[in-house]
Amino acid sequence: MDGHTSEQFLTSGRDLAQNEHHAENGHRPHLNGHPSVGDDGLRKKLSEAKPFADVGTSVADDLGVVDLVATAAFPTRFGDFTLYGFRDERTDKDVTAVVRGNVAGTTGCPVRVHSECHTGDIFGSLRCDCREQLEYSLSYIAERDRGAVIYLRQEGRGIGLLNKIKAYRLQDLGLDTIEANEYLGLPADSRDYRVAARIVELLGIRSIRLLTNNPEKIAGLQAQGIEVEERVPVLVDENLHNATYLRTKRDRMQHLL
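The chain above was modelled as a monomer; its predicted structure follows.
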């Protein structure tokens, strides 16, 4: 018996033993890694609920297709939302949105388009204001009947996480965020709002009030056909570590701070 066949044999043996154990304890075995639904009441409930009936819709443009893949109730410390999962077929990236209330057909819907910030959103970095902007937006929308936060996978204004860490090191040596990117041969801001626009369309929102301090974000969404009725300022405090960063955004990138 060769190594590959032996591994298959051992794996199938473990699976068989696990299934027998589940059967002995009143559990139905897993089929192809998925639990079978043995309870008639639960099976009926799933059939009636049609848990994935609202997914499978998509919207296309000249560059590709954005698909709605899944939705689920999403309670958070800010309030209750619905979590939406999308797939951008062009980049093969997963994109999410948290939605408050029924936004379909709405005008002037408050929307935050937030680009991923691993260092700020997850680790609470004080070098930027990203997490504060995200939390401000979630709180703002949670206080209203409807709205959405779209979370784009565009780390470091599009340069990626590892390049962002390199840029951090250059900032430690005295460069600002733009100079650091340029030193690395990268653009100051390469974000693209195409996917966000397609998600607004998939959600059925007719026009938005955009939570942002960045005029380029407004222009980027308008270029993709989204009607922006109004800009809603995102109010966050400066700290000792991000003062230069915020000054660069204001003075060199024309952010409205």
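The first strand starts at residue 30 and ends at 31.
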